[in-house]
Design goal:
The protein is α/β, with parallel strands linked by helices. It contains 35 helices and 23 strands. β3 and β4 form a beta hairpin. α23 crosses α34. It binds ligand 26V.
Length: 808
């Protein structure tokens, strides 16, 4: 691979002058942060040079541009990743060493932008990485939140949220593109006027804000393609500073206009809290859609003139979930109101251009907005949505049996609500789920009526992960070992990891892989000691569940298991299990009481168990605060058991399951989401599956014969005891008992079937950990997981999107 620096010497010279240029200091006097900042800016400027070249190439070739609209991009730190992708990591590392600095130390100073909640936002970032690697002209379009997802601290076992001021010291990767700012209007009233015998509409008296884009380069591995992520920030359109108010001493009032505009891009919504009635969120959604579409059409006009019918040949717009669902109506608005196309012509262009990915079947997560709120904020857009809805209804085939049901379930406007998922499906030529089972469930439950009407629109795109970030960069020891035996082609082509199967029975390779795992565990232990003064023992099994807290993900089942093992050890000192450290990490949405109580329970159980000498030889519990991309990259490589224990049918795909598999952890999981594909690839012997299947869950729910109390009564000694301990002060010392968890489980009749799967889960865990005693067999399965994980590279995912949806 060609490097961006011809030699170490050249790098050192450029770097020294960069530090001088931006700090006015020489290297020796610069602070560590100055050194990081200058390095990142140097790499960013090289990236932008390649980006310009990439863009010129695309413009010249007339290649289709793909725009990936997502209200979240959880990109993680970029410095190490871009050095790797540019093939400059070793050279820069040595150059810094010559200067007396350490690359890893500098990388640790980079802010970790939390511009996303979890899986959905991280997927968007992985797909950007893979688009650049595959040479796709692919661009992210999203929001630049001033404050990312809250930072999590743990106090008395409780989650405490503080603001994430990731921009406080500046962000070296972004460039502000004032020249590309777009005016966005809210509210106002629609005015019709006639021109040449046809009615047209415009909106008057809108409240306008300025959307200002910031561009972040996306460097593809190999360094040949650099794409970009464009994120939007809001500002007042003009300085409406109220001098009179200021002179009266009303400073806040004087600046109110600025505050109102800036509020739109101020915060990322914690998306599992239910967002009904939150006007700012609706403004965010329209803002990044309208600004993004405006940019796309400007580029298209510039490059291709005005043959709008050709738009779908040169542009694909992908909507990540329903948050960008206004893409359809907004594109219609511009084509008919401003470009003066006829409805049918515009509609054909829109549907050929748009595609949509669904990421959840949770009914409470399906986005709707009240018609009242929507039509007031976006009156013209609402009219267009009404027209789309009316035509959908008029064109409906009313000769079909049961058409009334089909129509009701597929309607865009219903019961005073705008249903964003239905809008997305109707405006798109492609609808996909994110794992095989998820797409099946979409087709047969949530979107079954659409599937009955247009089965060809539906397809599956099983998620993937960047194997470069989550294996090569996060797990350098393992990466070196892999490269030593199969060469480094796997960085480019993850299917090459399959060549590791040859080494699954090579004792010396397994031995070395195990040593790397041991070092990764020690690295995580050092992090916990340094950052949180928590001591964990790398000689124990690292059993890991890291993800957002949600009832369906069943962290509760995991902690019940831990309570049960604790109880059994206390009752019987001869009860033996393999020594294990149970590791949790993840955030709970701030208004999600049950999830927060689950965090408090875990910490309370940890508090008791970790201080109990009777059990400490076999168990400890560790909650890692503030789960985010950067500490995730330390956790995955250290994991040996991957807990993927959602109620079957509920987790659309999961992606931590893939990251953990790739790093050699064995999955302890239900047949849910992409776990099913993991088992299919690695084989049932390499994972440990337990619990009800999605069909069994559905059947149980339909029959209505399940009673949580039956489970309690049938296993008073173990499960019953665990339930009782929620309220009997066993774990109350830290900050009280857990009545609400007990009530939630017992009064909802165990909605997530925690009690139902408890027995088979604990059993499966015991069987799995018992096999740890045979290290060769364990290590063989671990390496086998890595060897069969290549298919989960997001490079594969993105090729499927490119070939089957975008045709780019
Ligand atoms: C949103 C909401 C909003 C209201 C209350 C409950 C709730 C629960 C979850 C969500 C998130 C929905 C979107 C999402 O993040 N889905 C995740 O997408 C990942 C990438 O495709 C996938 O791996 C995860 O399984 C899926 O949960």
């Amino acid at each position: 691979m060609e490097s961006i620096f011809n030699s170490k010497q050249e790098f050192i010279e450029c770097y020294r002058s960069q530090i001088m240029a931006i700090t006015g200091k020489d290297f020796e006097h610069a602070s560590d942060f100055d050194r990081f900042n200058a390095l990142a800016r140097l790499i960013a400027s090289r990236a932008r040079t390649v980006q310009t070249a990439t863009d010129n190439r695309v413009a010249k070739s007339g290649k289709k541009r793909v725009y990936y609209f997502s209200i979240e991009f959880l990109i993680g730190r970029l410095l190490d990743n871009y050095l790797l992708n540019f093939g400059a990591r070793d050279l820069v590392c040595q150059g810094l060493r010559d200067l007396g600095a350490d690359l890893d130390d500098l990388c640790d100073l980079e802010p970790d932008p939390a511009l996303g909640n979890g899986g959905l936002g991280r997927l968007a970032a992985c797909l950007l990485d893979s688009m650049a690697h595959e040479g796709i002209a692919g661009y992210g379009n999203g929001m630049r939140y001033r404050y990312g997802l809250f930072k999590q601290e743990i106090l008395d076992g409780r989650q405490v949220e503080t603001t994430d001021e990731w921009l406080a010291s500046g962000y070296p990767w972004e460039v502000r593109r004032q020249d590309k700012a777009v005016t966005i209007g809210f509210g106002g009233r629609v005015v019709g006027y006639e021109d040449g015998g046809r009615m047209y509409y415009r909106t008057e008296d809108t409240q306008d804000v300025l959307a200002v884009p910031y561009d972040i380069p996306v460097v593809g591995y190999g360094g040949k393609t650099v794409n970009k992520l464009r994120v939007w920030s809001t500002e007042p359109l003009e300085e409406h500073f109220d001098l009179d108010a200021f002179n009266r001493g009303s400073y806040a009032e004087a600046d109110a206009h600025r505050a109102d505009a800036e509020a739109i891009s101020a915060i990322l919504y914690p998306n599992d809290a239910g967002e009904h009635g939150r006007l700012l969120r609706l403004k965010q959604e329209y803002l990044f859609v309208a600004a993004g579409i405006s940019t796309i059409l400007d580029t298209f006009r510039l490059e291709h003139g005005r043959a709008w019918s050709e738009l779908p040949d040169f542009v694909a717009i992908h909507t990540n979930d329903t948050h960008p669902a206004m893409c359809g109506p907004e594109l219609m608005r511009i084509l008919i109101d401003e470009e003066r196309l006829g409805w049918d012509e515009a509609w054909s262009i829109v549907t050929k251009t748009l595609s949509y990915t669904n990421h959840t079947i949770l009914p409470e997560a399906l986005e709707t907005w009240s018609i009242g709120t929507f039509s007031k904020l976006l009156p013209r857009l609402y009219q267009i949505i009404e027209e789309i809805a009316r035509r959908w209804q008029d064109d409906f085939d009313k000769s079909r049996t049961g058409w009334q049901d089909l129509l009701r379930n597929t309607a865009i406007l219903w019961d005073g609500q705008v249903r964003m998922a239905n809008l997305s499906v109707i405006c798109s030529h492609s609808v996909n789920g994110v794992a095989k089972i998820h797409t099946d469930i979409l087709e047969h439950t949530v979107l079954k009526d659409f599937y009955a009407l247009m089965p060809d629109k539906f397809n599956n795109k099983t998620n993937g992960i960047s194997h470069r970030r989550f294996l090569a960069e996060s797990n350098p020891g393992y990466a070196r070992l892999i490269t030593e035996v199969i060469g480094d082609a796997w960085l480019d082509d993850a299917s090459q990891l399959a060549r590791l199967t040859e080494f699954e029975s090579d004792p010396s390779f397994l031995e070395r892989a195990a040593r790397v795992k041991r070092e990764n565990k020690a690295r995580l232990a050092r992090y916990m000691a340094a950052e949180h003064a928590i001591s964990i023992d790398p000689n124990t099994i690292f059993d890991v569940q890291v993800k957002r807290f949600h009832s369906y993900k069943r962290q509760l089942l995991n902690i019940f298991k831990i309570m049960d093992i604790y109880n059994r050890r206390i009752s019987d000192p001869n009860f033996a299990v393999a020594p294990t450290t149970f590791i949790f990490s993840g955030k709970a949405a701030s208004s999600y009481a049950f999830a927060k109580e689950t965090i408090r329970l875990i910490n309370s159980v940890a508090d008791v168990i970790n201080a109990d000498a009777r059990v400490n030889e076999i168990m400890r519990v560790c909650f890692i605060p503030d789960f985010r991309v950067s500490n995730a990259q330390l956790i995955y490589p250290a994991a040996e058991i991957s807990e993927q224990i959602s109620t079957a049918g509920m987790e659309a795909s999961g992606t931590s399951n893939m990251k953990l598999m790739m790093n050699g952890a064995i999955t302890l999981g239900t047949l849910d989401g992409a776990n099913i594909e993991i088992v299919n690839l690695a084989g049932a012997d390499s994972e440990m599956i337990f619990g009800l299947t999605a069909e069994e869950v559905e059947e149980l729910r339909e029959k209505g014969t399940y009673f949580a109390w039956d489970m309690y009564n049938a296993d008073r000694a173990r499960l019953g005891r665990v339930i009782d301990e929620l309220t009997d002060d066993t774990f109350s010392a830290l900050s009280g008992n857990f009545e609400s968890i007990r009530n939630e489980v017992m009064q909802s009749n165990d909605a997530n079937l925690v009690m139902k799967d408890f027995g088979s889960y604990v059993d499966a865990w015991e069987r799995l950990t018992a096999t740890y005693a045979d290290p060769m067999s364990w290590n063989r399965r671990s390496v086998h997981n890595t060897a069969t994980s290549g298919w989960f590279s997001s490079d594969r995912t993105i090729r499927e999107y490119r070939d089957e949806i975008w045709h780019a």
